[in-house]
Fold this sequence. Notes:
- The complex is a heterodimer of chains A (793) and B (347).
- Chain A has 793 residues and is α+β, with helices and mostly antiparallel strands.
- Chain A contains 22 helices and 37 strands.
- In chain A, the strands form ten sheets. In chain A, strands 25-28-29-33-32-31-30 form a seven-stranded mixed beta sheet, with helices on both faces. A five-stranded antiparallel beta sheet of chain A has the order 5-4-3-6-9, with no helix packed on it. In chain A, strands 11-14-17-18-19 form a five-stranded mixed beta sheet, with no helix packed on it.
- The termini of chain A are far apart.
- In chain A, 41% of the residues are buried.
- By secondary structure, chain B is an alpha+beta fold.
- Chain B has two domains: 2-90; 109-343, Bira Bifunctional Protein, Domain 2 (BirA Bifunctional Protein, domain 2).
- Chain B has twelve helices and ten strands.
- Chain B has helices at 2-18, 22-33, 38-44, 53-90, 109-123, 137-140, 177-186, 226-241, 294-299, 316-324, 330-334, 337-340, and strands at 127-128, 134-136, 160-162, 169-171, 190-199, 211-221, 247-254, 257-266, 283-292, 308-315.
- Chain B has a seven-stranded mixed beta sheet with strand order 1-5-6-10-9-8-7. A three-stranded antiparallel beta sheet of chain B has the order 2-4-3.
- The longest helix of chain B has 38 residues, at 53-90.
- The radius of gyration of chain B is 42 Å and the shape is rod-shaped.
- The relative contact order of chain B is 0.10.
- The mean pLDDT of chain B is 91.
- Chains A and B meet through helix 9, helix 12, helix 14, helix 15 and strand 25 of A and helix 5, strand 1, strand 2, strand 3 and strand 5 of B.
Amino acid sequence: MLVSLNWLKDFVDIDVTPKELEAILTDSGTKVETFETVNENEKGIVAGKILEIKKHPEADRLFVCTVNVGEKEPLTIITSAKNVFEGALVPVAVEGSILADGTEIKNTEFFGIKSQGMFCSVEELGMNKDLFQKEITEGIYILPEDFVEPGTELRAPLWIDDKIYDIELTANRGDCQSVLGIAKETAAALDTSFRPLNFVQDKEGDEISDYLKVEVLSDECPRYTARMFKVKKIEDSPMWMQLRLLNSGVRPINNIVDVTNYVMLEMGQPLHAFDYESIGTDEIVVRTGNTEKTVTTLDEKERPINEEMLMITNGQKPIAVAGIMGGLNSEIKEDTKLVVLESANFDKTSIRKTSKDLGLRTESSARYEKGIYPELAAEASARAAYLFEEIGAATPIEGFIDIVRVENPNKDIEIELDIDWLNKFLGTDLKLQDVREYLNRLFLGTELKDNKLVVRIPPDRQDLRIKEDLAEEVARLYGYNNIPLTIMSGDTYIGERTKEQRIEDLVTDILIGLGSDQTMTTSFIGPSKLKSYGFNDWEKTVIINPLGEESSLMRPSLLPHQLEVIAINQNRGNQEGSLFEIQKTYHEEKTDGLPSERKDLVLTEFGKDRSFYDLKGKLEEIFDHLGIRDVRYIPEGSEIFHPGRKAKIKVGDLEFGQIGEIHPATLKENGIAGPVIEAELSFDRLCELADETIAYEDLPKFPDSTRDLALVVGKEILSADLIDTIKHEGGDLLESVNLFDVYTGSPIPEDKKSLAYTLVFRHPEKTLTDQEVNEKIEKILNALSLEYNAELR
Amino acid sequence: MKEQLNTIYQEFLDEISKASSLEELEKLRVAYLGKKGKITAVMKGMKSLSKEERPVIGQLANDIRSNIENGLTDKREALEKERLDKKLKEEVIDVTLPGKKQKRGSYHPLNKVIKDLEDIFIGMGFKIVDGPDIEWSKYNFDYLNMPPEHSSRDLSETFYVDTTPDQEILLRTQTSSVQARALQENGVPIRVVVPGRVYRADEIDATHSPVFHQIEGLVVDENISMSDLKGTLDLIAKKIFGEDTKTRFRPHQFYFTEPSAEMDVSCFNCGGKGCRVCQNTGWIELLGCGMVHPNVLKQCGIDPEKYSGYAFGIGLDRMAMMKYGINDLRLLFDNDLRFLEQFKVED
């Protein structure tokens, strides 16, 4: 919200610099986003009265003007502007003055005649030209006749030196959506006095009922007031009013509309003026459930409406969208004779919804959305009536229509405040007297009762309902930054990670140590993407209102996004890498009524020299660190993988992951160069399986006996199966068995492979003899030959 | 025999001076001291000597024998040293050639920030807890005192998975959703932080993403005051951005805290003088915080007259971007290896 410093000064004395005010307001809770001068550059432009205009003897399009700028001798100014006239008061940039864009003005000769400066447009003065009618901005800015004496510098009178504060209001401060609200905050923060407004004093009389009756049919309009006025003359509003509108970012239109906008800016209550004759009936009905399909608003746009929207109607058709924008059919015209002034309170949710559905947000709707207190409707109406008379725009028709459809439930609120509680809660040591003073500065009445303060809440402060609200009021006036810094007293707590969190850190460290980069990918995925990655039967956790089809599902697996990361990297020339991520996946199956979430670990290797075994090695390293033993790899798994290069990962019967080379067809479809190897493990299971106990075993006392066996078996035979047999036959004496070589090729037959193992035998209580070991080896070989047709090489 | 021994010794000295390898040296040892060696042969001939001569010659033979042994040892050491010197000379390497690559991976910068924060909070007695991303609307809004008509509940701001009235399921828009869960599950006193993923219906651009990250903090106990909130967060800011960091608190508004505040930290880039990073204000907005609203406590069955507490929330993506000077949020989600590998350093 834009707030003019000059306007603020109408209500409150400000004895600090604009920069200081910015900090004081921000520290007390009125956050200033930025503040700037209307125009910094402009300097020395004065008012001049045009005494005479003659054609330039040498140039058709130029005029030679004699201009009184308050000096003894008038100046000669040459202009090409057509909108100047004799007697006009205009801005004159005399020699040495500076225009808004920084140009310094010098005397210039035009075809033999010296021009002692130039006339200025709105833009050259540095005023916001977007807020003026086009006719004004295209020519020289003609000032009201008696605006200032010729020769007066215009910078101050035209408020070009004004500072504009852009203020970010919090959602609870509907009362601050006005110059008055900000002025109250300013007075409280600066601890200076506040000057209240003038209102019209209503006279007895009910002439208005001869013209108009109002009916409110919806609770979405808790209060509706109307006054009527006879227009004296529709014209420009006075400069003081225009400047206040301009520096609040609002376009001056005419003296009637300007008053409604002025009061809205000043008090925060949106008002609307109807042309009485255009209403077409003698009634106003506020209602929902209208049957019209569209309404044309003041901005000349035809807008689709529905029956849920609250409308101001003439009993037959809409004449305004309540609280948002007037209808074109009832707008103030140049020949308007009678004005109906609406000042009403509308339900914020209703306004928000309609504003959103129409895609139409206005100064008015924004104010209603934050919440306006109902009593303000009557106050603002009286204020507008005062201003209509004050500026001579209109005279009132006696009487005031005031319909209270819903009583304000929040009248006469009192809150008890215990100073001891307050100090304990804030960690401060404030005295009762100080607390009372802070509250009074905020226009909150206080009374001392049984050692507690009873605080009366005025109707505009809809945000104050409980003692904690008052604690904030006191704290912000005392200064948040004056509250001391302390650390929680009392018991000591031990912070720690859970087992799962520790394991997550451990696995992360292991993988980074092994050269993998940690990735972070989104939780969303789309059905077609899942399909392209080979997920034909995905689980559906569907977002009802996604940003797009491709982010409409919560991902059931971490694998697809890893492929996406590879695609991005290969596109950018990163041809190989190792990746991992520990994140949630989402599943249809419900946990306590919600789609279940699981934490998974995904690992990826890509690049031409990477193999299945590179990735499997990393897994094995993790399992070793976590004390997970007897992990088995069963050659089966998801269709995303190469049919012959995939495995399910199990401990006992518990499957907790998969590993495999991504199917070449999937890679091709997604434009990824292979090979890509991925593994996805249930991180939750991994944590359950992790056995972090370390059981020390005595070092062996007797020597081992080692044998190497090179076995020739069919290519389809799994090493794990051979090892199972070796272990089974080797019994307790077999301490370990490890593969140390795999060989295919001559002289091994084509359908066979050679696997070489080192077997270590040991007895805990004696040295094994060769004979004992040989017997074991023979048993093992017999079994291998029987079960797998294995031969010793 | 005496002369014989002297001659043998002379011959030995002569030969050893010519020996130039360890192999030749070994041959000499065998030739003189071996079972069939010259000295051994002489010693064998001692039997034929008289009783008087025997000790004299024996003494001489032993002396010569140990001289030969010493001579051999000295020569061996000299030759070994020579051989080693030669080998060392041959083995000279160019120490300026690059080391062998031992590739280590990198933390994602966001995870780095999360981990650092977790460690700081653990040091202050906080536990780390988690909650679901897909959440009941009541935890994300109702229990947090959010008005039923508030716009953040709209379909245009929040992603929904189920919109059945009173059973709405959504993607949590704030880690604050875990406040009520933690209070209900853990009770009071409580001191927890919740790092996690949150979702809002924003299109992705340089500063927005529909998926982003926050860390929520919650402390509830008897006698928790606003000064504790300030003291704790001030300490945390100093831990994150350095001991000289200053903090300031501005009044703000959140539905689930009262009083509420935003905390700014003095710009870590310019130290508060004003620069591009802080848009010349000297301050950087870091987090929102406040005293837990009594309605939130009541909703969780906690007596707000007895207990009080504070809560805060920090945007992690923005913090990671500020900390490392990353100018586009999308980089965090692209996972370009050239980006990731810049975060190898343990900072």
